[in-house]
TrEMBL record:
Pfam families: ShK. The lineage of its organism: Eukaryota, Viridiplantae, Chlorophyta, core chlorophytes, Chlorophyceae. Residues 53-93 form the ShKT domain. This is ShKT domain-containing protein. It comes from Haematococcus lacustris.
Amino acid sequence: MDPASTHEGCPVLVGSKWTTTTWIHTKPFRPEEYNPSSNKYRVNPPFQDPGFCTDGSDQCPKWAAAGECERNSVFMKGGPLVVGNCMKSCRVCTECST
């Protein structure tokens, strides 16, 4: 038994043991992404290379000018596990010069 493993199996009491591609986690898997009130994991946004300084909507400059960068910070600027939708307009990043 591997004490560092987060997976576990049932012992064979009688007969043969079959395997499956489904994993049983013995400890919470990515607890920072789990919402206990909805009993669901957060769906991650499509990966965006952090090197790109972009806005996800053409409305971002308008929202930023209206103060949404501070009022709706996680959506606009992002957070520890979330890429912001309006990082360029909120000046979280700067475009690389070409």
